[in-house]
Design brief:
The protein has helices spanning 10-16, 57-69, 106-121, 134-146, 164-173, 214-228, 234-240, 248-258, and strands at 20-23, 32-37, 44-50, 76-83, 86-92, 97-98, 181-184, 193-196, 199-203, 210-213. The protein is of the alpha+beta class. The protein has 2 domains: 3-92, Phosphorylase Kinase, domain 1; 97-258, Aminoglycoside phosphotransferase (APH), C-terminal lobe (Aminoglycoside 3'-phosphotransferase, Chain: A, domain 2, Alpha-Beta Complex), CATH 3.90.1200.10. It has a 5-stranded antiparallel β-sheet with strand order 1-2-3-5-4, covered by helices on one side. A 3-stranded antiparallel β-sheet has the order 6-8-9, covered by helices on one side. A two-stranded antiparallel ribbon has the order 7-10. A hairpin with a 6-residue loop joins β2 and β3. The protein is globular and about 50 Å long. It is an enzyme of class 2 (transferase). This is Aminoglycoside 3'-phosphotransferase. It comes from Sinorhizobium numidicum. Keywords: Antibiotic resistance, ATP-binding, Kinase, Nucleotide-binding, Transferase.
């Protein structure tokens, strides 16, 4: 695919001339993601989405800029704008391979994931301007449900066949009484951590980064490990995180909450 096949913002066209476009099919982002390559030039990532009240790219750009300012590796923002009723975000790609695709042994991958999340969770929540506490996230989940944006066909196997309205009722009934607040990635799955050699190269897909319960990240990381590496690697990961006995109700709850995003 070439640039002329996509209605790019005018100021993007010269910058991206000569790049080939490959649509990313690995990630689960609500936006359309293209991987851009050109001989002798930096690899880029281009995201676009329909502009509107549920658009997320401006939020992702702000979070990536904040994360970079804190010294954590992530894509560098090159440009962000609205064109043809769509939001566009251009970034430099993080060099390396995601942890789901990495050829490293499972033990190495869970060690890298645990270290990446530990670095993120050690950031001072007082310095983080992004709120993903339950009050905020549940309100967002309700708004998305009422707008018809919850994909009931994509629920986890344990919830397939149920409705978003049914699940939202369960969100209210099972809401945890307390939150162990840290700066969370928000979607801490293996594909969202890039590794180079045997270390963390960068965090990607950070549109849901913000202050939330530690279990927000732990729950989705455990689910991703079970899916990509097998259940046998979940407990070793928890041990590496210093959380050998996480709250099982919270692990369940944050996977339930994720069905709305």
């Amino acid at each position: 695919m070439q640039t002329q096949e996509i209605e790019l913002p005018p100021r993007f066209r010269a910058r991206l001339a000569g790049y080939s476009f490959e649509k990313d099919t690995l990630g689960q982002s609500a936006s359309t993601v293209f991987l851009l390559k050109a001989e002798g030039r930096a690899r880029l990532v281009l995201k676009q989405e329909r502009a509107g009240p549920f658009a997320e790219l401006a939020q992702e750009a702000a979070r990536l800029e904040w994360l970079a300012a804190k010294g954590l590796p992530c894509p560098r923002i090159l440009a962000h704008e609205v064109h043809a009723e769509r939001n566009w975000l251009m970034m430099e790609a993080v060099e390396g391979v995601d942890l789901a695709s990495s050829p490293l042994a499972p033990g190495q991958r869970i060690t890298i994931l645990a270290e990446a999340l530990r670095r993120l969770h050690q950031l001072d929540i007082a310095d983080c301007p992004f709120d993903r506490r339950l009050e905020t996230s549940i309100a967002m989940a309700k708004a998305r449900m009422e707008a018809g944006l919850v994909d009931e066909a994509d629920f986890d196997d344990v919830r397939l066949g149920r409705t978003a309205k049914d699940l939202f009722g369960e969100l209210g009934a099972r809401r945890p009484r307390d939150e162990q607040l840290v700066v969370t990635h928000g979607d801490a799955c293996l594909p969202n951590i890039i590794v180079q050699d045997d270390g963390v190269a960068g965090f990607i897909d950070c549109g849901r980064l913000g202050v939330a319960d530690l279990h927000q990240d732990i729950a989705l990381a455990c689910r991703s490990i079970a899916y990509n590496l097998g259940n046998d690697w979940v407990q070793p990961f928890l041990n590496l995180c210093g959380l050998p006995n996480p709250d099982p109700e919270k692990l369940f709850y944050y996977c339930l909450l994720d069905e709305f995003f």
